[in-house]
Specification:
The complex is a heterodimer of chains A (353) and B (327). Helices cover 36% and strands 19% of the residues of chain A. Chain A has helices spanning 7-21, 37-40, 45-49, 61-73, 92-98, 102-105, 135-139, 152-164, 211-226, 244-254, 269-281, 303-309, 313-323, 331-334; strands at 2-6, 25-29, 54-55, 77-82, 115-120, 145-147, 169-174, 181-185, 197-200, 205-209, 231-235, 238-240, 257-264, 290-294. Chain A starts with a strand and ends in a 19-residue tail after the last helix. By secondary structure, chain B is α/β, with parallel strands linked by helices. Chain B is 43% helix and 11% strand. Chain B has 11 helices and 8 strands. In chain B, helix 6 links the parallel strand 3 and strand 4 (165-171). The chains are: A alpha/beta (353), B alpha/beta (327). Thiamine diphosphate (TPP) sits between chains B (63-64, 112-114, 142-145, 172, 174-176, 242) and A (30, 59, 61, 87, 90).
Chain lengths: 353, 327
């Protein structure tokens, strides 16, 4: 049966089923069993599955990552959570030097099936050290897989696929997606890693986007339709390995590519997708590919600055309009208005995270 | 102890408390749009330690740093403006409550990645030693920060090079909602760990400002005498929620009775009573203090509210040191 649940609930349900179906799965992370349960995604799991399978940990990210890696070498399938991606930067050594290379450097004799859930996000003055989006950093590392689900359906299916995968998987969730609803089957199902998802069909231009920015892309596509521009939105779902086939066939069809990435501009996911298209279907391109990203600066804390830091639907719309030699428009002209301040995810939020 | 010093210790604690309480009640106006980790309940440690410091001694801290900042003499107007996200804030709005700085009093910065400033503070001490300066560097850290690897790495290097650094650990028994019991074995003892690295170590009563003062005084003397680093730790308790202006006991992660027990040991109230009893202070002076602090805080809030927001172009400045500010 399928029902409407939130993205956060979908993660919770996937974890619950994984724990129930496989005794080698365990869940560990700061605050996992606490009353708030990692933004509600781990609530009740300790009670149901016991404290030796669902547990808190010392504030020692690097050591603990090595420890879950070690347990995976002898058959466990750990899921580790971090409330913010910034905190796990302490464990880059274990992730990049060890986990990512374990299978390779021992000639394929061992595998490291670990999943690291990382929460990215924005808003309410999270600032330079609490709101980074580092998908490109992990995607750069051979041996790691990187997924970024956008919908509740994908959140569940990709978490299950990640845990079933025999490689280290970085699972990145945007905090502003946690409360969005979508239909999710009750069944235990996988969404294949490495497969993008067409969120909207179109013929004039392809937008490749991921995670929260896919919602902005969809919004932009709706407004662009009114201008007579038919946009195809390809939601990556998996950053690494990239779904080259879906991206390239779409670009070949539309002849125009705009990449939207919630990350820094230089050396990022957008650059990689643009390179992929120019290398492989240069002849089909009717215009140079364009990217909409965060600027190459850390996130400022003051909301007066942060409100201008994040690209929005209007920036996507105007980039597309420019590609079609149309004049740029203001939000008012297009009819975009906001019923909540730009630095909160929804009306109910009164800070802090 | 000198009466003036007793009054100063009281005044500084009261000031931090009133700043935090004012901040808590103003937060619901939704104009301070950043996380705030209030230190109400833990004032004695900041004040007792910093009262032993000179202006050119260095201090670094973590996410819960309003008290450390103020006790070191950090500028209240700039702190409030920073929390309000204004151009006049100590980081010009780039940082917020979790990133305080005041170089005029050698408060070198707080950052919210747990344990992040432990090695940095150790490095500041290393720098002063290399330069031949006679300054002490203090790093404030929480109980959870002692779980990070850099804590041990820093103790080791500080001891190896006999660095003039004081590590001050504030054990409030929780990391967010996680009690010590799920993070550290019962048998663990940070004093022994520090000693094991050859670091002078001592423990005091965290809610008793006089005890903190004395423990810090001895440790700082050890450091100033050139004998190397020191580690001091104190038990204490955070009164308000981990992050934000409210109370969070209703979540159920800590017992109401435990909270009440620590409330009775409130560092400000107990010290005030003691001073009154011994006639080291009178009620009139206390009231004068309160009024003075309240008007100072009112002014700081007004300053913050009336200050302009940074210009949008400021998003792009400060990324590199050589960059010129473009107006
Ligand atoms: C490296 C890292 N891990 C996790 C966090 C999330 N976090 C923020 S504050 C905090 C609690 C830290 O506890 P403690 O050091 O005892 O300080 P307290 O909040 O109790 O003052 C945690 C875990 C973080 N900021 N940085
Ligand atoms: Mg603590």
């Amino acid at each position: 049966m399928t029902r409407e649940i939130t993205y956060g609930q979908a993660i919770l349900e996937a974890t619950d089923q994984l724990l129930a179906n496989d005794k080698s799965v365990y869940l560990i992370g700061l605050g996992v069993p606490d009353p708030k349960g990692v933004f509600g995604t781990t609530v009740g799991l300790e009670k149901k599955h016991g404290s030796n399978r669902v547990m808190d940990m010392p504030v020692a990210e690097n050591g603990m990552t090595g420890i879950i890696l070690g347990s995976s070498l002898v058959g466990m399938r750990p899921i580790m959570t971090h409330q913010r991606i910034d905190f796990m930067l302490l464990s880059l050594d274990q992730i990049i030097n060890n986990a990512a290379k374990w299978h390779y450097m021992f000639g394929g004799k061992m595998k490291a099936p670990i999943v690291i859930r990382l929460i990215i996000g924005r808003g309410w003055g999270q600032g330079p050290q609490h709101s980074q989006s580092l998908q490109a950093l992990f995607a750069h590392i051979p041996g790691l897989k990187v997924v970024m689900p956008t919908t509740p359906y994908d959140a569940k299916g990709l978490l299950i696929a990640a845990v079933k995968d025999d490689n280290p998987v970085i699972y990145i969730e945007h905090r502003w997606l946690h409360n969005i609803f979508g239909s999710v089957p009750e069944d235990f199902y996988k969404v294949e890693i490495g497969k993008a998802h067409k969120m909207a069909e179109g013929s004039d231009l392809t937008i490749v986007s991921s995670s929260y920015m896919s919602l902005e892309a969809l919004k932009a596509a709706d407004f662009l339709k009114k201008d007579g521009i038919s946009v195809e939105v390809v939601d990556l779902r998996t950053i690494k390995p990239l779904d080259k086939e879906t991206i390239l066939s779409s670009v070949k069809k539309t002849g125009r590519l705009l990449v939207v990435d919630g990350g820094w501009r230089s050396f990022g996911v957008a650059a990689e997708v643009m390179a992929l298209a120019t290398e492989n279907c240069y002849g089909s391109l009717k215009a140079a590919p364009v990217r909409v990203t965060f600027p190459d600066t850390p996130t400022p804390t003051s909301w007066a600055l942060a409100n201008h830091y994040y690209p929005k639907a209007i920036d996507i719309i105007n980039s597309v309009r420019t590609m079609f030699n149309l004049p740029v428009k203001t939000e008012a002209e297009i009819g975009i208005s906001y019923d909540v301040p730009l630095d909160v995810p929804d009306k109910s939020f009164t800070g802090p995270f | 102890m000198d009466k003036a010093l007793l009054k100063k210790l009281y005044y500084e604690m009261l000031r931090i408390r009133l700043v935090e309480e004012n901040l808590a009640s103003l937060y619901s106006e939704q104009e301070m749009r950043c996380p705030v980790h209030l230190c109400a309940g833990q004032e004695a440690i900041a004040v007792g330690v910093c009262a032993n410091l000179k202006t050119d001694d260095y201090v670094m801290s973590n996410h819960r740093s309003h008290g450390h900042f103020l006790a070191k003499g950090g500028n209240l107007n700039e702190m409030m403006a920073e929390i309000y996200g204004k151009e006049t804030g100590c980081c010009h709005g780039k940082g917020g409550s979790m990133h305080l700085v005041d170089l005029s009093v050698n408060y070198l910065g707080s950052t919210p990645i747990v344990a992040g400033t432990i090695p940095v503070g150790t490095g500041v001490a290393f720098g002063t030693l290399l330069k031949g300066e006679k300054k002490v560097t203090v790093v404030f850290l929480g109980d959870a920060a002692t779980e990070e690897g850099v804590f041990y790495e820093s103790l080791n290097f500080a001891s190896l090079k006999k660095l003039p650094v004081l590590f001050v650990s504030e054990n409030n028994f929780y990391s967010v909602y996680s009690p010590l019991s799920v993070r550290q074995p019962h048998e663990r003892d940070n004093l022994t760990i520090a000693k094991g690295h050859g670091v002078y170590s001592d423990k005091g009563t965290g809610n008793d400002v006089l005890d903190v003062y004395r423990v810090a005084e001895k440790a700082i003397k050890h450091i100033r005498d050139g004998k190397g680093p020191a580690f001091i730790c104190f038990d204490t308790y955070r009164f308000r929620e981990h992050c934000g202006p409210n109370y969070d006991n209703k979540l159920g992660y800590r017992l109401e009775s435990e909270y009440e027990e620590w409330r009775k040991r409130c560092p400000v109230v107990t010290f005030e009573k003691k001073l009154l009893q011994k006639k080291d202070i009178d009620q009139e002076t206390i009231d004068t203090y309160k009024n003075k602090i309240q008007s100072e805080m009112d002014e700081a809030v007004l300053f913050a509210k009336n200050s302009p927001f940074p210009k949008v172009s400021e998003v792009y400045t400060d990324v590199y040191a050589e960059e010129k500010k473009n107006d």
